[in-house]
TrEMBL record:
Recorded GO MF terms: DNA binding; zinc ion binding
InterPro entries from the UniProt entry: CWC24-like, Znf_CCCH, Znf_CCCH_sf, Znf_RING, Znf_RING/FYVE/PHD
Keywords: DNA-binding, Metal-binding, mRNA processing, mRNA splicing, Nucleus, Spliceosome, Zinc, Zinc-finger
Protein name: Pre-mRNA-splicing factor CWC24
Localization per record: Nucleus
Region annotated Disordered, chain positions: 1-31
Gene Ontology terms describing biological process: generation of catalytic spliceosome for first transesterification step; snoRNA splicing
Span of domain C3H1-type: 45-73
Length: 174
């Protein structure tokens, strides 16, 4: 009550008039109190550190404890996005004529998980993981479990003829 009386001034006729200059007491009194249990924090990472192994092969040996971002996305600059919108109908028709090749390739890592290089004579394990033949045989000498999922392979693998065909078709379309 005393603070209210301090901020009121009476003019010559005796009518109460509010001060035109705000005092510190009035500023504090007029502030809206924010809730103490809600905190909003916004963190924007303008340079995300992407896990190189995961981006190249789709597999990271550190798993969930990896401190880098597990993303295989490729981002385009604004001008590149604008160019993509201007693609002619002829280009759209060419991309649709590959017979669903893109759908098949997305299920398979495009590089060997062990050597992190393009497939050289690819093979497939009984748990449907793909490796280079040389990488797989070198790995089997040390451990017969699958490098990706850890299941027992018993040292057996088949030639990945479908992957060879898909890679050959992809190279021809480029």
């Amino acid at each position: 009550m005393a603070s209210d009386l301090d901020s009121i001034k009476k003019n010559d006729s005796g009518d109460p008039v509010q001060f035109s200059m705000r005092t510190d007491k009035n500023k504090i009194k007029n502030q809206i109190k924010q809730p103490t249990n809600v905190r909003t924090t916004l963190l924007v990472d303008y340079q995300p550190d992407v896990c190189k192994d995961y981006k190249q092969t789709g597999f990271c040996g550190y798993g969930d404890s990896c401190k880098f971002l597990h993303s295989r996305d490729d981002f385009k600059a604004g001008w590149k996005l604008n160019q993509d919108w201007k693609i002619s109908d002829d280009d759209d028709n060419k991309n649709n004529d590959n017979g669903g090749l893109d759908d098949k390739i997305t299920d398979i890592p495009f590089k060997c998980v062990i050597c992190k290089d393009d497939y050289k004579t690819p093979i497939v394990t009984n748990c449907n993981h793909y490796f280079c033949s040389k990488c797989f045989t070198d790995r089997v000498r040390k451990d017969t479990n699958c490098f990706i999922c850890g299941k027992e392979t018993n040292g057996t693998a088949k030639s990945a003829k479908t992957l060879q065909k898909l890679l050959k078709d992809r190279d021809q379309n480029k």
